[in-house]
Each structure stands twice: as structure tokens, then as C-alpha cells.
Amino acid sequence: MKKLYGVIGDPIKHSMSPEMHNQLFQLYRIDAAYVPLEVKETNLADAIRGFRAIGAAGFNVTIPHKTEIIKFLDRIDPLAEAIGAVNTVVNENGKLAGYNTDGLGFVKGVGTQVSDLKKKRALIIGAGGAARAIYFSMAEAGITQIDICNRTSGRAEILVKECPISVETNIVDFSEAEKELQRYDLVIQTTSIGMSPNIDHKPFSARNVSETAFVSDIIYNPLETSFLREAKEKGASVQNGINMFVCQGALAFEKWTGIFPDTEIMKETVQKRLGGPTC
Ligand code: ATR
Q1: Pocket lining: 125 vs ligand 1, CB cutoff 6 Å
Q2: What is the pLDDT at residue 277?
Q3: How far is the CA of 87 from the centre of ligand 1 (A)?
Q4: Helix/strand/coil (H, E, C) string of the chain?
Q5: N or C: which end of the chain has fewer CB within 10 A?
């Protein structure tokens, strides 16, 4: 029987996940379909009950349900529990298990481009949900020096305190991060600053970035943020948010099917949809 997968969120109509996963089901000859499902916050409990009733094989979870969903699941993976957010649910013999592949997707994406990740000195810009998933997953991957800068320093302090794995972290403000940017091998921009339509905005100038650094911006709309462009002009290697998006999807697909899919094909699909080159 055909297996059913989906993504729940609100709004959901612009999600690229259905295209990406349906293409993979076809490629690997798996009899399954993946659908976008708009679920309002007030309907979340009913939606999960519905998934159970119809025996859905799994689903992704996006804004605004990533945290709220936890209380409706039967099992939570320890990393997802620490992050406090779930983006992937697997129906494991009738029990719904929650995972977080966002941060691990980021680490996987960077790992394909940067060698010796564990030895790198990293700076994360931002301390929201995305930064939290990335920081915790980087900690789990064995990266031991990760500084954070956030407009609200208290939020960064909480993030560091709640991480189950101890990491050497300095909390710096935007002006210090800008001044000392050359210290970092890895710079990860996780805020919404620079996202369309505010494409000229950036958290601070990247002019002091080291030319040997790897700079990642998790935004993919636009494909090149103003922060990323400046870092590239200074000689740094850069990566936009497509890799993280694709890798979180690849890890979800692997949880559902046991197959880690071809991420290059996935990137091409996303690139076509966004209308520009991936990096
Ligand atoms: P997400 O889940 O996408 O990370 P979030 O949890 O709302 O979203 O977090 C947004 C992040 O972007 C936060 O780090 C936020 O900084 P604060 O914690 O100080 O709010 C940051 N952010 C968003 N807009 C910003 C702005 N205009 N200037 C500085 N930081 C901003």
C-alpha cells in the first residue's frame, strides 16, 4: 500500500519539501506520496490524531508547530528534546517518534565543504530556534569552540546554559564580533537579517573576515545575502541556506526509508525552484 508522508505548518503553500521528497520517492522507486498540509495552531492535536488514525508513515513539522508538537508524540530523540523542537516525525510501529534534523543537516552540509570541523573556531550570529538547533548539533558533532553573538545577550546565555554538552563559548556583542571576525574559521549567520525584502540589511559588516574562513548564511531567499556577498568579496568561502535545507530533508528521508539520498539531485531541484545557482 502507498505510504503517506507530509509536512505540517502554517503557512505551508511555499514549502519546497513536497517537490523534494516526491522526487526522491520516484528516484528510489518507493511507493509513497508527500503532501503539504496547512494546520492551524488550534488544530494541531486533531491533526496528530488524524495522522495516527490513517497510519501516516511520517511527516515533517515546520513553523509554528516545532515545539508545540512535542507533547503529542510518544517518543522524543534526546537531541530534539534538548533543542526543544521537532522537525521530523517517524511512525515507528504505531508510535510517533520525534527527531530534529535541522542542526544535524547544517553540520552535514558544512562537513562536505570543510575538513577537520572539530578543530574549527566558530561564531554563531543569533540565538533563536535555528541557532539553538545548530549550536546543540555542532556540540554533539564534537566542535568545542563556538562563540555566539546576539542582539539580546540574555537569550544567548540561556542557549549556552541549556546545551547538554559543554562547549567553550564567549558571548560577544555585534560590535565585538565585527571587530574580531578574523578570529573565526567558521561564521554562521542564523538571524532573519538580510532576508527578502530587506536584502540590503546585515547584522554587521563582514569586512574583517579571514580569507581562509568559511561563512554560512542559513537564508536562501535571496540566494546571496548582503553579509555573504561581503564575506565572498573578502576572499572567504561561502554557503547559503540551501545546503542546510537539503541536508535536513535528506536526514529526514533517511529516517523514513533507511536511504541517505543523493543531495546533489535534491539541490538541483531546489535551485530550479529558487531560480539561481546553489553554493
Ligand atoms: P528562528 O527560529 O528562525 O531562529 P527566532 O527564534 O525568532 O527565529 O530567532 C530570530 C533570531 O534573529 C534571534 O537571534 C533574534 O535576535 P533576538 O534574540 O535579539 O530577538 C535575531 N533577529 C531577528 N531580527 C533581528 C534584528 N533586526 N536585529 C538583530 N537581531 C535580530
Answers
A1: no
A2: 59
A3: 19
A4: CCEEEEEEECCCCCCCHHHHHHHHHHHCCCCEEEEEEECCHHHHHHHHHHHHHHCCCEEEECCCCCCHHHHHCCEECHHHHHHCCCCEEEEECCEEEEECCHHHHHHHHHHCCCCCHHHCEEEEECCCHHHHHHHHHHHHCCCCEEEEECCCHHHHHHHHHHCCCCCECCEECHHHHHHCHHHCCEEEECCCCCCCCCCCCCCCCCCCCCCCCEEEECCCCCCCCHHHHHHHHCCCEEECCHHHHHHHHHHHHHHHHCCCCCHHHHHHHHHHHHCCCCC
A5: N
- Contact assessment for residue 87 and residue 248, using Cβ atoms and an 8 Å cutoff: yes
Question: Is residue 66 annotated as a catalytic residue, yes or no?
Answer: yes
Nearest CA-CA partner of 120 in 230, 240, 238, 212? 212
The model's pLDDT over 22-38, given as tens digits with 9 standing for 90+, comes to 999 999 999 999 999 99
> Please, are residues 96 and 89 in contact by the beta-carbon 8 Å criterion?
yes
Q: Count Cα neighbours of 69 within 13 Å in the Cβ-side half-sphere.
A: 32
- For 17, 83, 87, 236, the CA distances from 104, given in Å and listed in that order, are 17, 12, 11, 23
Whole-prediction pTM value? 0.96
* CB 194 less than 6 A from any atom of ligand 1: no
Judged against a pLDDT cut of 60, whether residue 61 lies above it is answered with yes
Instruction: State if residue 150 touches ligand 1 by the CB under 6 angstroms criterion.
Output: yes
